[in-house]
Amino acid sequence: LALGNRQHCHDKDVIVLQGGPGDSLYVLLAGVVKITMTTENGTNTTLATRQRGDLIGEVALFDGRPRAATVTAVGEVAALKVSQASFRDFAKRHPAAASTIMKSIVSKIRESDERLAHRSRQAPERLALVLYNLALASTDREPDGSVVIPQVTQGDIARLADAGVATAERFFKTCREQGVLATGYRQLTIRDMSMLEHMATGG
Hints:
The protein is α+β, with helices and mostly antiparallel strands. It is built from 7 helices and 9 strands, in the order βββββαβαααβααββα.
């Protein structure tokens, strides 16, 4: 944490702006962010989501080019901002760090390819897939094995999946009735991961 400055962002705050200077990276400490890109014809496309423990903006530290996408907070977000100079100094002292970052970049390129297939899915599948991925990354477990996804709402999931509000409401209603999940104040609890995976893969 001594590497950078801690920042707190509110829902819909822009953390990184497409076209902006790539002079820092962010380490997500809490919350979820949505990564989007505006094409030349003005179309806004969702590329991915990131959450606690993920890095944002690391590519720019290697290629020196402007930001390729916009990163927006979905709900409350805490992040550590690390300047390019601080990161380079850290990488010199810890060479393994640069290797880890490069692995992260490669992984995200693969995820971007998978995202192309994601866009062709129906809304319920996209909603289920977003939930499933967030649940896989969550370390918050209840005694019965249920997975807790903190600091997110049904509206947040709808936005992350590019789904309409009415569609998301129907999806969550069905999931509650089938015992797949439970909803609470800014928290979702996955009760049946197997069923959620089944829904996410269109099985």
